[in-house]
Design goal:
Layout: H1 6-9, H2 22-34, E1 40-44, H3 51-63, H4 77-84, E2 90-94, H5 101-111, E3 121-126, H6 133-144, E4 150-156, H7 164-167, E5 171-174, H8 180-193, H9 200-209, H10 214-227, H11 234-241, H12 246-257, H13 261-273, H14 278-297, H15 309-319, H16 324-341, H17 348-358, H18 391-403, H19 413-418, H20 420-430, H21 432-438, E6 442-447, E7 450-455, H22 460-466, H23 469-482, E8 488-493, H24 507-515
Parallel strand pairs: 1-4, 1-5, 2-3, 3-4, 7-8
Antiparallel strand pairs: 6-7
C-alpha cells in the first residue's frame, strides 16, 4: 500500500475526533438529535481547521445506514464510500475550478435526481467564495427551494466574498484557529501511534509556526519525520522552518533592558549568519512584546497567552522589568521598523537602528516603583522662566481650595515627584499620546492645589497639546485618582532644551545616515 501523509491518515472520521471546534460540533450534533436540519450550511474559517473534514462527518451522520445519528457507524457502505470520497450521493466540488455559470447550470439539472443509495444527496462545495456573481445568482433559486432530499454544505476561508443573498439562505458556522496547546496534544497523539520519539518542545515549535492550522502542523511534522534519521530535535524544526529559538527572544529583551547595544547587534548578526529569516525574527520579537504586554495586565492569568506554563512564568517575570508605557513604546518602534522595511530591499539596517534606539532611550527601562518606594526625580537643573499662571487658573483657585478634600499642605511636591512615573503609566492606559507628552515634563511646584509642570523649551508643541481642555481634564483626573485631592495643572516652558545624547557619533547611526544618504531633520 502506498504511503499516506499524516494530514490524510489522521483526518477526523467522527465528531469526537474533531480538534478545537467544540462549539460547531455541539450545534451540529444538537441539530441531528432534534432532526432540525437546514437545507444549506456555510462553514467559514481559516485554512486547515477542519471545515471539509467536518462536512464529510456531517454527511456520514445524515446518510449512515443506521439512520440520522450523531455517531455514524463508519462501517456501512455509505460511511465507507464517503470516507473514501467515492460516494455517488455526496458530491464534493472545488469552487475554484468550477466557478462559472455553466457548471452551476449542470448542478441545477442534477439536483432534480434522487440519491442512488442514500437518504440525502449532499453537495459539498469547497472555497465557495470563488464562484462568480452570475454563478451565485444561478444557484439562488435551487438554494432557496431545493428538493427535500438535497443538502448543501459550503466551505470558505473568505465568507465576506459570498454574496449576501446566498449567506441569508444558509446556516452559518464559524470555525476558529486551533490553539497551540490543542495542536501539540494532537501531534503527541500521532507521535505515540506512529512510534515516533519526539520532545514536547519540538511539537510546540511546530504548533506555534502553523498559525492555528492543524493541517499545516501535521504536514510539517510529516516532513520532519521523513528526513530525520533518529529522534526529532528542536534544531531540526528550527532549521527547516527558519525559526528563531525562544531563548533568543528572551535574551535580546534582556539586552534591551540592560541597554546593551553591542549585545543586541551581535545577536542579530548571529541570527543572520545562521541563515534565519530576519522578517520571521522581527515578527516573533513583536509577538514576544505582545505577550509581555498581556503578561503585564493579566495578573498571572495564562489563558490569554497560548504558550506552555513554564514559558508564561518566564514572560511574567520579564514583564516585571518594564512599565506598560515602555512596552508600548518598544512595540511601536518594532512595528514602525516593519513598516519601514517595506520600502527597503533589506530589513537589516532599519532593525539595527531600531535596536540601537531601544537601548539608548533616555527613559530608564526599569519599571515604575510603588508610591511607598519613591523613585528618584528627573534631574533638570534648567533655569526656569518666570511662572505664568493663566487667568482662568487664578479665577478657579479659590473655589478649588474650598472644594478639595485634601489640600496641597498634605501632599508634598516630593511625593508627587516620587509617583510621577505611576502617573505616566496610568495615562498610557487612558491616552498614550498624553503620556508621551507629559513624560518630557517635571513637576516643580504645588501651591493651593495647582501643580506647575515644567517642559523643555523645545517642547512647545507638547505644551500646546497638554493645555487643550479635554487633555488637561484627563491629566487632572489622573492626578485626583492618584492622590485624594482635586488638582489643577499649569504648564510652563523652561529656558533649556531637552537633554540630548550625542547619538550622531554612534557608528550605527552614522552607518544608517550614510546608507540612506540621509540628514537629521528633527531630533526626538
Amino acid at each position: 500500500m502506498s504511503y499516506i501523509v499524516f494530514a490524510l491518515k489522521w483526518r477526523p472520521q467522527n465528531f469526537s475526533e474533531v480538534v478545537g471546534q467544540d462549539n460547531v460540533v455541539a450545534k451540529l450534533k444538537g441539530a441531528l438529535e432534534k432532526k432540525r436540519l437546514a437545507h444549506a450550511y456555510l462553514f467559514a474559517g481559516p485554512r486547515g481547521v477542519g471545515k471539509t473534514s467536518l462536512a464529510r462527518i456531517f454527511a456520514k451522520a445524515l446518510n449512515c445506514k443506521e439512520g440520522i445519528t450523531v455517531e455514524p457507524c463508519g462501517k456501512c457502505s455509505n460511511c465507507q464510500e464517503i470516507t473514501q470520497g467515492h460516494s455517488l450521493d455526496v458530491i464534493e466540488i472545488d469552487g475554484a475550478s468550477n466557478r462559472g455559470i455553466e457548471e452551476i447550470r449542470v448542478l441545477r439539472e442534477n439536483v432534480k435526481f434522487a440519491p442512488v443509495n442514500s437518504r440525502f444527496k449532499i453537495y459539498i462545495i469547497d472555497e465557495v467564495h470563488m464562484l462568480t456573481v452570475d454563478a451565485f445568482n444561478a444557484l439562488l433559486k435551487t438554494l432557496e427551494e431545493p428538493p427535500e432530499f438535497v443538502k448543501f454544505i459550503f466551505a470558505t476561508t473568505q465568507p465576506h466574498k459570498v454574496i449576501p443573498t446566498v449567506l441569508s439562505r444558509c446556516q452559518r458556522f464559524d470555525f476558529r484557529h486551533i490553539s497551540v496547546m490543542e495542536i501539540v496534544a494532537k501531534l503527541q497523539e500521532i507521535a505515540q501511534k506512529e512510534n515516533i520519539s519526539v520532545d514536547k518542545e519540538v511539537l510546540f515549535a511546530i504548533a506555534k509556526a502553523s498559525d492555528g492550522s492543524l493541517r499545516d502542523a501535521e504536514s510539517v511534522f510529516d516532513q520532519l519525520v521523513s528526513f530525520s534519521k533518529e529522534k526529532l530535535s528542536l534544531k531540526d524544526v528550527i532549521s527547516m522552518l527558519g525559526l528563531v529559538e525562544e531563548e533568543i527572544l528572551f535574551e535580546i529583551t534582556e539586552k534591551i533592558i540592560k541597554k546593551d547595544s553591542r549585545g543586541c547587534l551581535e545577536l542579530l548578526n548571529n541570527i543572520i549568519e545562521e541563515g534565519k529569516d530576519v522578517d520571521v525574527f522581527l515578527d516573533e520579537l513583536i509577538e514576544h512584546f505582545r505577550n509581555l504586554m498581556i503578561a503585564k495586565v493579566s495578573s498571572l492569568d495564562t489563558k490569554l497567552i497560548d504558550l506552555p506554563q513554564e514559558t508564561c512564568e518566564r514572560l511574567f517575570k520579564q514583564a516585571e522589568e518594564f512599565s506598560l508605557a515602555q512596552i508600548f513604546n518598544i512595540f511601536n518602534t518594532l512595528v514602525n521598523t516593519k513598516e519601514m522595511s517595506k520600502r527597503l530591499e533589506s530589513l537589516r539596517i532599519p532593525l539595527e537602528v531600531a535596536l540601537v534606539k531601544l537601548t539608548h532611550e533616555r527613559l530608564d527601562l526599569r519599571p515604575s516603583e510603588p508610591i511607598s518606594k519613591p523613585l528618584a526625580p528627573k534631574t533638570k537643573n534648567n533655569p526656569i522662566k518666570k511662572e505664568e499662571v493663566s487667568p482662568s487658573i487664578k479665577r478657579e483657585e479659590a473655589a478649588l481650595v474650598s472644594e478639595a478634600t485634601v489640600t496641597s499642605e498634605n501632599i508634598s511636591l516630593d511625593k508627587i515627584i516620587a509617583s510621577w512615573q505611576n502617573l505616566i503609566d496610568h495615562l498610557a492606559k487612558v491616552k498614550m499620546s498624553l503620556a508621551t507628552f507629559l513624560n518630557e515634563g517635571s513637576p516643580i511646584k504645588i501651591e493651593n492645589n495647582i501643580l506647575t509642570i515644567s517642559l523643555p523649551k523645545d517642547c512647545s508643541l507638547n505644551k500646546e497639546a497638554l493645555e487643550k481642555k479635554e487633555n488637561k481634564a484627563i491629566v487632572e483626573k489622573a492626578l485626583s485618582e492618584l492622590f485624594p485631592a482635586k488638582f489643577r495643572v499649569n504648564f510652563i516652558l523652561s529656558e533649556e532644551n531637552s537633554p540630548k545624547e550625542d547619538y550622531l557619533e554612534n557608528p550605527f547611526v552614522k552607518s544608517a545616515l550614510q546608507a540612506f544618504k540621509a540628514r537629521v531633520i528633527k531630533e526626538e
